[in-house]
Amino acid sequence: MSFKPYKPAKAMWYAFFIWLIGFAWGTIVFMVPALINLPTIPYISKYPAVSAPLIVAYFIIGFLLIREYLRDTDKKATEGLKFGAAIFLVNIIMDALIYFMMFKSEDYFAYFSIWFFYIMSIVYPWFIGRWLERKT
Fold first, then answer.
1. CB neighbours of 40 closer than 8 A, spacing ≥ 6?
2. 108 DSSP assignment
3. Is the torsion defined by CA of 36, 37, 42, 44 positive or negative?
4. How many separate helices (H) and strands (E) can be counted in the chain?
5. Domain assignments of the chain as residue spans, ordered by start
6. Contact, 96 vs 18, CB < 8 A?
7. Residue 5 DSSP class
8. What letter does residue 101 receive in the DSSP assignment?
9. Mean pLDDT of successive 10-residue segments in the chain (136 residues)?
10. Residue-level pLDDT at 3
11. Of 32, 81, 100, 134, which is most buried, counting CB atoms within 10 Å of its CB?
12. How far out from the chain centre does Cα 110 lie?
C-alpha cells in the first residue's frame, strides 16, 4: 500500500486552500477589535471568534472538497484517509512555521480547538470516503 495520495498535487492544493481559509479568517478577526477582544475559553480556544466559525466552515467546505477529490477513485475510504493525512501535514507544518516560529505564539498548540481540527482533518475525509463507498 502506498502512502501517497492518488492525486498528490490536488491533495496539497486543497490542503493549503483549507489552511489559507483559516489564515484569512484569523487575519480578519485580528483587524476587528470587537472580535479579537472576545474572552478566551480556557483550554478550549484562545480566540473563539476565529475557531468557532472555522470549525463550522471546515465541515461544510471540507465536505465539498473531499467529495470532489474522491470522485474519480474506487478506493474512497483509503484515499480519504490519505487525503486527510495530507491536510493534517500541510496544516500542522504551516501552523508551526507561521504561528509558532514567525509570530512567536508559544501557546498556539495548547488549545483544544487546534487539536480538534487536526484530528478532524484526518478522520473527516476518511469518514466521507467510507460514506461515499457505501452510497455507491
1. 46, 47, 48
2. G
3. negative
4. 5, 0
5. 51-136
6. no
7. -
8. I
9. 88 97 96 95 96 96 97 96 97 95 92 97 98 92
10. 84
11. 81
12. 17
32 by Cβ neighbours in 10 Å (0-12 / 13-18 / 19+) ranks as exposed
Specify whether the CB–CB gap between 107 and 46 falls below 8 A: yes
Cβ(27)–Cβ(95) below 8 Å: no
The three grid cell numbers given for residue 100, joined into one nine-digit string = 509558532
Give the whole-angstrom CA distance, residue 57 versus residue 60: 5
Q: How far is CA 18 from CA 10, 75, 102, in A?
A: 12, 23, 20
Beta carbons within 8 Å of 29's beta carbon, 6+ residues apart: 35, 36, 47, 49, 50
* Nearest residue to 71 via CA among 17, 2, 117, 6: 6
Q: List the Cα angle 65/68/73 in 5-degree steps.
A: 130
The whole-model pTM stands at 0.93
